[in-house]
Amino acid sequence: MKIIWLIFSICCLSACANNPFLNTSKVPTNNDSASLNQLAKTDFDRLADMEYRANTQSLRSLMIKLYKRNPRELAKSTTDSAEKMAEWVFEGDQQHQWQFEAIENKQDTAAIFLAFDNQYQGDRVLAFIVGLQTMLAKAHNHKTEFFIPDNLDPQKIYNVARNLEIAAWKLSNSVDENGQLFLLTNEINATEHNLSFEREFGKMIGRTDFYAVVLAEKSQRFISRVAQSLATAVFLPF
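Given the sequence above, the corresponding structure tokens read:
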């Protein structure tokens, strides 16, 4: 029925567009295209758009923060700035499809594990961020914009929120064979209190949790909630 409604709406708009009394120009404007695009969305689709875009922006910001806190990782990939590297990773995704030879083309949890592998000598920030972004993309059916026919699973979205919690714990606690953190994040000392990494993860987890609950209510699906100790938790399927 949703697909039929969408086709019906498009047909009605097409008919109006071809009526000389209703339209003074045969060339659609950008505003016309945007209006047509919005007709194919519900409020839940728009919420999904905002949740996905905001989380992607948070991951981009997190990547820049991690590179600035860990410049040795950036040097493994490029001599450019952290901002240029993040631009190449996030805005070039249509070209490389999130496949990076530098991290053995790994994605989602495999890439996250690589970031904390003692044997890995490559760019740990790249592995970590690509792992998180591709995990988010997979739970959203590899789509970046959502319309009426789309059918996201609230359980997968909920699981991603839990996986973000696990990833955040690993980032702050995983150490190498010498007992040193693989990646430096928050800094708390007598002169500085930097909790920006923790806040960024908190925002991502909050957005994802909220959308999972709203989506479950809309689709009348039950979310199976999982309680784990972060120190021993395993990534949930998504």
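The CA atoms of residues 228 and 234 lie 8 Å apart. Try to locate this feature in the token string yourself.
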